[in-house]
Write a structure and sequence with these properties.
single chain, alpha/beta, five-stranded mixed β-sheet, D-Maltodextrin-Binding Protein, domain 2, 2 domains, 10 strands, Solute-binding_3/MltF_N, 39% helix, three-stranded antiparallel β-sheet, Polar amino acid transport system substrate-binding protein, disordered C terminus, signal
Length: 261
């Protein structure tokens, strides 16, 4: 009997470490990949090293509050990130305008008020103050950009609209006098003008400010095709807690010269 007990004890002693080693750690947090590129004044993505900037700080705090780990994608163009979100090949994006199309393949979580787009003119062009004045101009809009519904109504009624492939194409056409005005996102156009010497001092913002009927928001997107799509409520609650703690203002509005996108 003693021999049997000894053999049993040795067997348990051998199997216990193996079973403990094989057991997965229940405390390991889920990892979410954030698909992003270089977006000056929001999240810089250097050629070597990790991204940094206010959006990075915001997302790291969000991950901490949601109990997940954040992983940065390689620097990826915005349009490609959208395709990857649709295919479930990445998890989250930031700084997104809402649209019916995007809502089909991602959960959209609002976290900040968005600024209306601006109308850019050549520096020497007459200023415009009204939609009636705008109606006489050749107005460029960016193909694929998600404009607010109020702005889409203006575009739909406009008689002389030109679609351009990108913000850079629009600025170049404006510079070469091939159109009169460009309807552009504030921060992206500011970044592009600052980084391209050809554009320095060439443009101005029209005095016409487009008033939105309803508030517009910037969103975090969580891919519905992601294996982690079930975390929507978790992320939404974390965002709400950060808004309640005034962290959105701290990250995006308390910095000089860096208005919210």
């Amino acid at each position: 009997m003693t021999g049997i007990r000894t053999t049993f004890a040795l067997l348990i002693g051998f199997l216990l470490p193996v079973s403990l080693q094989a057991a997965p750690s229940a405390a390991e947090p889920i990892e979410l990949e954030w698909c992003l590129d270089d977006f000056p004044n929001r999240h810089h993505y250097p050629e070597h090293g990790n991204p940094y900037g206010p959006t990075v700080d915001f997302m790291q705090e969000l991950a901490k509050r949601a109990g997940v780990q954040l992983r940065f994608s390689p620097s990826t163009p915005f349009a490609r990130c959208l395709r990857m979100m649709e295919q479930g090949k990445t998890d989250v994006m930031t700084s997104l305008n809402a649209s019916t199309e995007r809502a089909q393949y991602m959960h959209l979580i609002p976290y900040d008020h968005a600024r209306p787009e601006v109308i850019l003119l050549r520096q020497e062009s007459p200023d415009i103050w009204s939609v009636a004045e705008l109606s006489h101009l050749n107005l460029m809009v960016i193909r694929g950009y998600t404009y607010n519904a109020d702005i889409l109504n203006i575009i739909a009624r406009h008689q002389q609209t030109i679609e351009v492939d990108s913000l850079d194409s629009g600025l170049n056409m404006l510079l070469l006098n091939r159109a009169d005005a460009l309807l552009a996102p504030v921060q992206s156009s500011r970044n592009l003008i600052q980084t391209n010497p050809r554009y320095h001092g060439q443009f101005k913002t029209a005095s016409l400010a487009i008033q939105l009927a309803e508030p517009r928001y910037v969103h975090i997107g969580l891919s519905k095709a992601s294996p982690n799509a079930r975390l929507e409520k978790q992320l939404r609650l974390a965002v709400e807690s950060m808004i309640a703690d005034d962290l959105v203002h701290r990250y995006f509005h308390a910095l000089p010269g860096a208005p919210a996108q």
